[in-house]
Amino acid sequence: MREGVKKDMKSGAFVFLCIVIFIVTFVASIVIKISYKSPEIKKYSVQWSDEIGTVQTDLIYGEKPANKFDLYLPADNSKESYGLVVYLHAGGFTSGDKTDDREILQWLCSKGYVAAGINYTLRDDAHPEANVLSQSNEIKASIPIVAEEANKYGYNIDRMAAAGGSAGGCLALIYAYRDASSSPIPVKMAFEGVGPTSFYPEDWKCYGFDQNKNAAAAMFSVMTGKDINPEMFGTAEYDALVKDTSALLWVDENTVPTVMAYGLHDKFQPYEASVRLDKALKENGVPHEYIVLPHSGHGLQNDNKLYAEYMAKVEEYLHKYMGK
Fold it and tell me: Which residues does the UniProt record annotate as the domain BD-FAE-like (predicted)?
């Protein structure tokens, strides 16, 4: 009996440790950028000024304290309509802020798009109930308000792209894939870096979840806000349970064109899940670019040329599917 108790205690401690490690390491990805910027990458940043645009900060879209967004408005306000690019911040669903992505939002604005950085309620001591599902629903609720605010400033929004990095990439794909059909603004494309897209234990080898299904169930319960047990894995019931937080499970022939980048040596989120997503997009004939950085981890830090290729594809897709 004592051995059984010890075994249960060890299992519980391991599950707790996995959750702590996941949160701590994922927080380290709050900004998916590299410290050194090659000339190829520098072109995707701008020296912000009134000649490029203006920014309206801390606009409110909901009742929760985190329900705020920043709106970057192009200096040229003469067009009949504009494309909106929403870029969601990283931080492992537990930290981060819209201001972390100021640089890419400014660059997007310089290209003539209305750009929005949106905050969402983080899972922390003050909000232990927050999870990927609740965060994705907050983003969904924000989009009509973002469009309304842009219109108030004279920018008519008639198309949009969803984008983000890491946790933000996960949420962006959920909106682009799950919510596109009900979006008040037609979603034309998505782009993201290193966002987790599915919850299959065999893909999460970086945390040993392929070997410890109890730990996987505990972690996925925290992330999805659903009560998951190991016996559910591999069943249709499980897919139905986690579908609202798994972009992969929404892929079909109507999925929007997507550009995505992943590091082969990512230890913070499951690289293998990106392989699964690439396969699903191919099988459904979805136009997409899947760029793997072979020497990089979660920060996409060791393959400057390929990161520049990712950004070039982002710009190409924006031009093709969002126009000017």
Answer: 70-281
Number of domains in the chain: 1
- Expressed as residue numbers, the domain containing 303 is 2-322
Note the pTM of the prediction, 2 decimals: 0.91
- d(CA 250, CA 258) in angstroms, rounded, equals 13
Residues 6+ apart with CB under 8 A from 220: 199, 226, 228, 242
Cα gap 227→148, rounded to integer Å: 37
295 neighbors 264 (Cβ within 8 angstroms): yes
What are the pLDDT digits (tens) for 41-83?
888 999 999 999 999 999 999 999 999 999 999 999 999 999 9
Of 125, 163, 119, whose CA–CA distance to 138 is shortest?
119
Burial (CB < 10 A; 0-12, 13-18, 19+), residue 273, is buried
Rounded CA Rg of the chain: 20
Q: Tell me, what's the pLDDT at 2?
A: 44
Q: Which CATH number does the domain housing residue 195 bear?
A: 3.40.50.1820
Question: Residue 29's pLDDT is what?
Answer: 45
d(CA 7, CA 248): 35
